[in-house]
Amino acid sequence: MRHFPVFRLRVSTPRLELRLPSLDDLDDLADLAVEGIHDPESMPFLFPWTDAEPARRAWSAISFHFRTWASWTPQEWTCPFVVVCDGRIAGVQEVSATDFAVTREVSSGSWLGRRFHGRGIGTEMRTAVLHLAFDGLDALSATSGAFTDNHASLAVSRKLGYRDDGVDVRSRRGGRAETRRLRLSRDDWTTPPGFEVHGLEPCLPLFGAGPTE
């Protein structure tokens, strides 16, 4: 798509490819959401979309991508990549920003199908978008966050060098829950070998990316 070249953007890692999904990819992603993302007793998401019945959960997994594409501007964007592992759709890794041209800061979020848990994929796909942000878009910082009982997400952040940035209090399933904010500085980041970004140059204006003053 000439007018939205983000569809040609790829981030490759030793095991994964991250790309914007095709329509067939979205079907596979919906199936993965129906299979399950996390233990039903837990809720790792601020918006509890996985509490919905299966058909609604599948539609949520699909419609999120259409909404982000339609609302994308250089001032406010969310780039939701599908994560491909061994030719199969494994989950979603997004990176987003508001006023990136000024803030040079991104945030991230993700989910992974349960059958792909426990293989280090979560760390590798977060590393991929951090490589895109710091080495491709010239970001200065990246933020993340997780409920304090989301040990897997917090472990990924710690492994990648994020530092504590405070605590927020949220309502989760009608109860009080704390989320931990985390921040990673460009000065604390080094991309490991084997991570590459492809097709970024024509996308830079859509990300509000350019030279740092």
UniProtKB/TrEMBL annotation:
<protein>
    <submittedName>
        <fullName>RimJ/RimL family protein N-acetyltransferase</fullName>
    </submittedName>
</protein>
<dbReference type="InterPro" id="IPR051908">
    <property type="entry name" value="Ribosomal_N-acetyltransferase"/>
</dbReference>
<dbReference type="GO" id="GO:0005737">
    <property type="term" value="C:cytoplasm"/>
</dbReference>
<keyword id="KW-0808">Transferase</keyword>
<feature type="domain" description="N-acetyltransferase">
    <location>
        <begin position="16"/>
        <end position="187"/>
    </location>
</feature>
<dbReference type="GO" id="GO:0008999">
    <property type="term" value="F:protein-N-terminal-alanine acetyltransferase activity"/>
</dbReference>
<dbReference type="Pfam" id="PF13302">
    <property type="entry name" value="Acetyltransf_3"/>
</dbReference>
<dbReference type="InterPro" id="IPR000182">
    <property type="entry name" value="GNAT_dom"/>
</dbReference>
<dbReference type="GO" id="GO:1990189">
    <property type="term" value="F:protein N-terminal-serine acetyltransferase activity"/>
</dbReference>
<dbReference type="InterPro" id="IPR016181">
    <property type="entry name" value="Acyl_CoA_acyltransferase"/>
</dbReference>
